[in-house]
Design brief:
Layout: H1 13-23, E1 30-31, H2 32-38, H3 44-53, E2 65-66, H4 79-88, E3 93-94, E4 97-98, H5 101-104
Parallel strand pairs: 1-2
Antiparallel strand pairs: 3-4
The structure holds a DNA duplex (13 and 13 nucleotides).
DNA sequence: GGAATGACATTTA
DNA sequence: CTAAATGCCATTC
């Protein structure tokens, strides 16, 4: 923690990620890369790390975030739980990978 | 202030 | 295509 060069951001990186996650409509998913890029950063891993803390597991649909390759990646509650949730939302998961990944992928630019 | 960690990404073999 | 190695960034210990 930089006590001197600390930014004036009241919201941490993870807070910004949540904002974007809330923008993701049901039945769609996003990638860590897209989120990081949307924040004008390349903290791909930092984004996932923010979810790892999982401060609000229900307020934020963290289960709608997957890897750029279309893989699920992981989930604090368990990968199986993530698959269940995504499947319930209408997303097809096969062998731990999202089918029609680019179709369900949500663009923050929209 | 510094080292360690992680739900990643990209490149190379 | 699969697997391993390297890099990257923010947060936490």
């Amino acid at each position: 923690m930089n006590s001197k060069l600390k930014k004036n951001n009241h919201l941490t990186f993870n807070e910004h990620c949540y904002e974007l996650l809330l923008k993701i409509p049901k039945g769609r998913v996003s990638t860590y890369k897209a989120i990081a890029e949307a924040l004008n950063s390349k903290a791909y891993q930092a984004v996932g790390n923010a979810m790892n803390s999982n401060p609000n597991p229900v307020s934020v649909p963290c289960h709608r975030v997957v890897n750029t390759d279309g893989r699920l990646g992981g989930y604090a509650f368990g990968s199986d739980r993530k698959i269940e949730l995504l499947t319930e939302e209408g997303i097809v998961i096969l062998d731990g990978k999202v089918q029609d990944f680019k179709r369900v992928l949500f663009d923050f630019k929209e």
